[in-house]
Amino acid sequence: MGIPRNLIKQFKRDLKDSEYKRYQLKSFILFIAGIVVFTLIAGFLFKQSPTRRPTGRTDVAYDFPEGTWFNTAEPLSLFDQLKGHVVVVLFNDFNTLSDLEDLTYFSMLNSTFHDQSVMCLVVSAGRSATTTDSLVNQWHIDFPVLADPDSTAMGTFGIRALPGVLVIDATARVAARYYEDWQNISLEAVVQDLIDQGVATRSLANEKYIPLN
């Protein structure tokens, strides 16, 4: 006497359901394992990242690295000559004529605050001291310029692209970073706001540092 067909069909259905459930369980376990592995890898990579935190609005800025300066009698420091100053830094490699427009706008900003404790300066990114010297003369740059051939200053201040503008308040804290659209920002208003804050907190220098005496 053979096994009834209906029992065979039921057995096949049960077997298929069992295999499907096992497949679901296996997929779920693999999914959880994947999440655990990803979390472990992410945690490891995070620990391997640089210990120096990227500067933000409440972080004290790092100082300028050693290098060759132009249009200043001595190397500048945020914590010495420029203590108590609002500092605006233009990072540029001056590769195109459009960079001249950036420089012109920056020069106007410098003129606007020429009698206040505001220092505008340029970092010649990726340029040697010799090339920077030529740029200073050819482009008639009259504010302090730091040659940054190895882009060390860019890395120090967390500048990721060129052109870039860094604004530092009177307490040597990073107030803002701007990039290619920086001319669309009212830097005058940003700087004036930082001046007002410096006056209110008595952190603004009473006298402006003069780079060339």
Q: Could you explain the architecture of this structure?
A:
The protein starts with a helix and ends in a 13-residue tail after the last helix. 41% of the residues lie in helices and 15% in strands. It has helices at residues 5-48, 98-112, 129-138, 152-156, 187-200; strands at residues 69-70, 86-92, 118-125, 145-148, 164-168, 174-178. Residues 44-58 have low confidence and may be disordered. Helix 3 links the parallel strand 3 (118-125) and strand 4. Strands 1-4-3-2-5-6 form a 6-stranded mixed β-sheet. The chain has 5 helices and 6 strands; from the N terminus they run H-E-E-H-E-H-E-H-E-E-H. With 213 residues, it is an alpha/beta fold. It folds into 2 domains: 1-49; 69-200, Glutaredoxin.
Structural class: alpha/beta
Counting structural domains, the number is 2
Beta-strand percentage?
5-15%
Shape: globular
Main beta sheet strand tally, sense and closure: 6 strands, mixed
Integer average pLDDT? 81
- From the alpha carbons, calculate the radius of gyration and give it in angstroms: 30 Å
SS field, number of helical segments: 5
User: Distance between termini?
Assistant: 116 Å
Task: Count the beta strands.
Answer: 6
Text of the CATH class of the largest domain: Alpha Beta
Please tell me the CATH architecture of the largest domain by its name: 3-Layer(aba) Sandwich
Q: Identify the strand order in the major beta sheet.
A: 1-4-3-2-5-6
Which consecutive residue ranges, at least 5 long each, have pLDDT under 50? 44-58
Helix and strand element order: HEEHEHEHEEH
Please identify which CATH superfamily of the largest domain we are dealing with: Glutaredoxin
CATH level-3 fold name of the largest domain: Glutaredoxin
Q: How helix-rich are the residues, as a percent range?
A: 40-55%
